[in-house]
Amino acid sequence: EPERILGKLRIGTCESYVISILPPVIMEFSEICPHVEISTHTALVPDLFQMLRQNDIDILFFMDQRIYFPEWVKVSEQPEKIFFVASSNSVLAGKKHISIERLLQEPLYLTEKGISYRYAMEQSLAAKGYELHPFLEVGNTDVITRFLLKNKGISFLPEYVVRDYLKDGQLTVLDT
Fold first, then answer.
1. Using the 8-state DSSP alphabet, how is residue 4 labeled?
2. Would you call 138 helix, strand, or coil by DSSP?
3. What are the pLDDT tens digits along the chain (176 aa)?
4. CA–CA distance, 24 with 1 (Å, rounded to integer)
5. Beta pairing, strands 171-173 & 154-158
6. Strand 36-42 relative to strand 7-13, pairing
7. In terms of Cα–Cα distance, which of 21, 31, 28, 56 is closest to 158?
8. How far is 98 from 91, CA to CA, in rounded Å?
9. How far apart are CA 53 and CA 51, in angstroms?
């Protein structure tokens, strides 16, 4: 019976998941297994893998390219959309086919360099000769969205981070 399960569950993940994805999952889990103590541990993906190998965490929840390890059990895998986003009041909001040159004229708020989707985007732009010069780099996507909501620039973020702001019209996906 799940309600009789005791112990600790240590979840390794990124900070943006702790803010946006995990709260409802943890709430549901705590209703099913109310006596399990849950802790989250945030780090970059390579560090999370090391924590898992050292038994410092029990579950790894992350975003990256497909990675396979035969000794581990993969429970779920799904694609995630990632966009350039800005305030709905941005001068770029609603414009079609925004060039990278124009996009990069705006203040850029980005996650840290080691984050998988940022790295992939930077590699793609570098292959075309573009170099990024972010106005701000910060690991917390909630901080980034606060700047965007104040119409202070643009960012490159996963859909799960900005979904609610897109739905209520505060942020918009830029057509690049």
1. G
2. coil
3. 777 888 999 998 877 677 777 888 889 999 999 999 999 988 877 788 889 889 998 988 876 666 666 676 767 667 788 899 999 999 999 999 999 999 999 999 998 776 777 878 888 899 999 988 999 998 788 899 999 999 999 999 988 889 999 999 999 999 99
4. 22
5. unpaired
6. parallel
7. 21
8. 11
9. 5
